Amino acid sequence: DDDTVMGRFHYLCLLLVASSEAARVLQHNSADLNYSKSLTCEDLANNSTYDLSFEGSWSYLRLDPLSSPFSMGSLAYMTFSDTHHTDNSTANPMLFPLPITLKVGNNGERESSSCRADSYTWRPDFTTTIGSCSTFHDTINVSMKVAYQSNSTICASYRLRSEHPRNISFEGVVPEDAPNRRASMRLLPERAGAGNAVLVEIHATKQYEGNFAIDRYFLLQTSSANSFLEHNEAADDDSVLSSPHPSSDDPTGYTLPRLLLPGGGEKDVEVEFCLTELEQPPEPPVGPSPQFNVSACTESVNNWLSEARPPPGISGDLSALRRYYSSWFQFWYNTEHDAGNWIYPAITPSMSRYGRGVWLWDTAFHIFALLSGGTGPRTVRKAREQLEILLGVARDVGHIPRVVGPEAVEETTQPPGILTWAALAVYNVTGDLDFLRDAYEVLATNNEWFYANRSTRSGLCEWEGQDSGWDTSPRWDGGSVEAIDLNSWLHLDQLFLAAMAEAIGLPPTEITKWKLAASRSREAIQARLWDDDAGVFWDRRPSPDNRFVSVVTPATFWPMLAGIANATQSHRIAERVLTKTALLTPHPLSSVGRSEPAFDPEDYWRGPVWINVNWLASLGLHCSGLHSDAELLLDAAVELVAKWPYPWEYYDPMTGAGLGAQNFMWTGAVNIIMLSDNPLVQSLLYRHMECDTMHSKSSH
């Protein structure tokens, strides 16, 4: 699990459950796609994706058609405007379950039922589940659709039919406290109005590297003319459950009001539920329940998909085309709305795990993909805004921080240079010199910050752990190192800053300053980090230790990426590490050599494949003229992403299994870059690293 720092998420759920019995889910057969125009939500339909969200939402919904086929899903939400914590630790998301259960009865009595899904279909804008619930007496046919109506409201539409009249009720349950989480709930009917609306207040505290508390309100409404009923007779107060009482049906949970519907016999019973997240209780009376309507969501997704620009080479390949658009969709899915430090809507690495922040080097990959793989004003604006979020906070911090949340800022760091590269890419598309001038000031300060705060006696800089982006790599099992990647990034940054200074018309002395800095960093890397006996670049312990850290990892490609390695060195590196006993695992590149004692195919940065590493290593190989090796890594990365309906955070190098966070943004982003025929990002690197005459391909 990646986020040993963030901890495990818990779930705030709204469940409309019909059974605990496993349901069989039939295969979804999508219609033939029209390759001549942009794909739409309908074209991306499948039966193996379970998460929904809405661009700008702070929540996502996870469906479970197998074990809870007619559940409205598990609502995983995170909010920052009312998150407070008791120390300086960064707050983590708070998620926990709030189920509502479908019951089927006879003659006014409830009876147990088992349900199954005969078909389940996911689209980016809604899900559809069709099946039945069987009781002792008969079978009730059920159809359920679930969708976000906006970035704060989720609705479910149910249609039920049985041959005989049946009493149907939807009931709620709040689970007991977990070891590291306490949640209390109360109903506020006087604030929600009478009848078909209930306001639920949630207070939760979670202990993880500090205590965090969230207070939130959820307005549950129904289109039914029937009223919610309080049916917990043990409650002292029928209107308020400040301390929920155990349910007679489920001693581990607590009851919420239920909605009782008359059976329809041969006529369908239709009912809708909507759940709206609020920061403050509404002033009564509340308005009518929203109507189930997916048009806003469908329009928003389809508009975003229309700005994707798939390369002509995949236009006749149905599978490749769908993967391209699926990766593009992740930008919509993983965007959360603006607040605090997020002066614009922010693209997070993954709603399901990293929804609390904008990460430094993740953002660069997002920008590269937006500018390489799409076209249109929405795309360019989104790319520029992501950079401006980080640069704005950096002006206050004094360097570009590792993570920026709406409130919290992790004032550590991540790779320099990659955002300078991204800023030049934005400028090449927009031609906005004012933007470039503002960016230059922050980016130049960031480069200088490393030499002021991370330099060693040798003139190189050191880092370890999360600063590197390779958090748990065995490269720093013994502590901080003069790192191959950090110093290559700094060299690359200096060359990009020289180009940026020239573009905005700064004096020649400013341009020369950066070129001289790049020359010094190149010489120091060659002198300190090249091991001629081993034929690779290694990290090195700072003085007085001075030993090489001889662990085989893809970091040895970084001097090739930055144009530092000469031709002989590049060939020796490839011969040493591109072998089956080193990094050429069945699914390359492993993040640690297969023969290394530290190698673990499932442990984060101690073995798994990272798609961004494959892409960056391939750029270094292309820059060094090793084109067949570069294409091998690109082919392997594209093939690995293609194995799954959504991009994973990282992958098992032996089996290809997806690991870590689902719907991981930089994996989808780099997949777009590798498939794209737009050479913008790669050509900037090749030109400024002075390797443009050596490469034969600027994209996959």
Q: Can you put this structure into words, describing what you see?
A:
With 700 residues, the chain is an alpha+beta fold. It contains 15 helices and 31 strands. Strands 5, 8, 9, 10, 11, 13, 14, 15 and 18 form a nine-stranded antiparallel sheet that branches. A hairpin with a 2-residue loop joins strand 6 and strand 7. Helix 6 runs parallel beside helix 8 and helix 13 crosses helix 14. The longest helix is centred in the last third of the chain and has 22 residues. It is elongated, with a radius of gyration of 27 Å. The relative contact order is 0.09. The N terminus and C terminus are likely disordered.
What is the topology?
Blueprint lengths: L14 E3 L33 E2 L6 E4 L11 E4 L5 E3 L13 E8 L2 E3 L2 E9 L4 E8 L4 E10 L4 E10 L4 E9 L5 E7 L1 H4 L4 E11 L3 E12 L5 E2 L23 E9 L7 E10 L16 H11 L12 H16 L1 E2 L9 E2 L10 E2 H14 L3 H21 L5 E2 L4 E2 L7 H13 L2 H21 L8 E2 L17 E2 L1 H20 L4 H22 E2 L4 E2 L1 E2 L7 E2 L8 H4 L5 H11 L33 H13 L3 H16 L5 E4 L6 E5 L2 H11 L4 H9 L12
Parallel strand pairs: 1-6
Antiparallel strand pairs: 2-3, 3-4, 5-15, 6-7, 6-12, 8-9, 9-10, 10-11, 11-18, 12-17, 13-14, 14-15, 15-18, 16-17, 19-20, 21-22, 22-23, 24-25, 26-27, 28-29, 30-31
Helix pairs in contact: 3-14, 4-5, 4-6, 4-14, 5-6, 5-7, 6-7, 6-8, 6-15, 7-8, 8-9, 12-13, 13-14
